[in-house]
Amino acid sequence: MCSIVSVRCSSGGAFAGLAMMTMMLALLLTTTIVSGDNQIELTEQLPTVMVAVLVRNKAHTLPYFFSYLEDLDYPKDRMSLWIRSDHNEDRSIEITKAWLKRTSSLYHSVDFKYRSERGKRESEKTSTHWNEERFSDVIRLKQDALQAARMMWADYIFFIDADVFLTNSNTLGKLIDRKLPIVAPMLVSDGLYSNFWCGMTSDYYYQRTDDYKKILNYDQIGQWPVPMVHTAVLVSLNIAQTRQLTFERKNLPAGRYDGPVDDIIIFAMSANYSGIPMYVCNELLYGYIMVPLEAGETVPGKDLEQLTNVLSYIVNEYGALSLKQDLSRFVADVPKDKLSLSHIYMINLERRTERRTKMLKHFDLLGLDVEHFPAVDGKQLSDKKVYDMGIRFLPGYADPFHKRPMTMGEIGCFLSHYNIWERMVRLNQQEVLVLEDDIRFEPFFRRRAYGVLADARRIGGWDLIYFGRKRLQEEDEKWIDGSEYLVKAGYSYWTLGYVITLEGAKKLLREQPLSKLLPVDEYLPIMFDNHPNDSWTSHFRDRTLSAWSAAPLLLYPTHYTGDEGYISDTEDSLRIDGTLPAVGGPSKGSSGMVSNDTRDGGQGQASQEPKKGDKEQLPNAPALLSESGIGQGEHDLETKNRRSEL
């Protein structure tokens, strides 16, 4: 026998009422009434919202889901919570109870019911199997939620899945301000999946359209009418026509619907038949969504990887995660390792604490055991210090973009990598991953990194593998025979992240690069003999470094030139002659040229050319969003009835 438990409470008490009133005063609207010679200001309360949540096997997402739900900047005494949960095989109910114990008194009312029995339905093959019984249960529950909102005279009902993270605290208020009958905040996943469709087939399933990517990529911004929204949907119940909305097939106009038993499709068609438009809003980054699991996929496998991907996106965007203290005990620490390598180093300037903090959060999420390697700070260098260190510069070197000598930041960057190569030799470290501190990890980083390393070790014959770089040649790069993940590296910029062998480090050191210095991302292509400047290349004899690259790449920069928050500690620093490089070209009254008669003529590009920090310029470079994830392409959206609720 199973038991159904109901928890129902309402906010009350003079103290709680005063506290909530104080909290919401700033959000209330005032109306001024003129009566005779008097002006009276009246306070107008914000609309009431019932939040409906279905929970099943979401113990891994609930701590973050509830934390972000609690962070919504909307008066909680104008919000009611309606939560249902059943057929769990994890701690979902325990987590929900723990959160409600602390927060219930903040909300206008809480209606939480759950079934205490554990395990899947007898008719289900797995916990991710969607059969007719499961769909029928979800339809019944969502219809109950809709009716409950109507009965309490709520102004709005907000349906939201328990694996959505509304990182924008203004989401609810912004959606209400749109004054639309049905609207969804566009959510971002670790692939092309989102919570709306731009097209629907004649048999009621997803249809590929050009508009979908335009909206998803923010190429067009606003509120867009679409045939389907799901997962996070706000419905205005003050519009008379919304009385026709339903999740139940029997409530649709007779003879009009011959589609599947599917809650989101039936709801969308009820809106269509009632003449109620549905919108998706992408005016802001509202939050993130998990891609529903296919039948047979598991939470401990695929879903935890996806959660890591999404949380990594959030750290990239906001620098930290929202996780309430009482919920943190439900989040297990991720065991750390070195990806089967001898060591992992992260190069980071001591003064760049914000970057270090962010990277440490990534390492915690990804389970990476990484040593912080203090970078050589170009701000602490001078012409004299550089000379006293025995450093001499490559004759004829000038930055290809700005036709200037090296900056102190570029010298510090080279020395940082050089010091790691020296340490590898001293400690006899066989394989090392070198990371910089301004990177973002691509989805499924760990799995993909292991795949790249397994192929490389099986095939053999490599010294360096780029995990992240900027390709500078349009020619196709040859695949490494026998590998699906590796190509032979062409002329490339950036040292975001690379794996280097002990023999590779020895090769880089043997050429004594400090006696003919140039930037490290010019030195590496010279050493694997794929650099377009023959004059520079001629100064290095043993150009036998075997360099490959992961394909697709596993790392990208967090920012590009011109992005908000872009900072370069290499380009925007003092030159070796003690002057600051001009931003965007030579400064007035200066030629911007290196005072060196041996500079190669015709090798430099015009100053209006992109900087090293610009986005990939190759015409065949894949878009960042479309290449993220494994098998997360738009075709995934065509899979029928992909769901994440009960």
UniProtKB/TrEMBL annotation:
Residue ranges annotated for the Glycosyl transferase family domain, each copy included: 343-522
Pfam families: Glyco_tranf_2_4, Glyco_transf_25
Gene Ontology MF annotations: procollagen galactosyltransferase activity
InterPro entries: Collagen_mod_GT25, Glyco_trans_25, Nucleotide-diphossugar_trans
Keywords tagged on the record: Glycosyltransferase, Membrane, Transferase, Transmembrane, Transmembrane helix
Domain of life according to the entry: Eukaryota
Ranges annotated as biased composition (Basic and acidic residues): 633-646
Transmembrane stretches, start-end: 12-34
Family membership: Belongs to the glycosyltransferase 25 family.
Name of the featured protein: Glycosyl transferase family 25 domain-containing protein
Organism of origin: Anopheles merus (Mosquito)
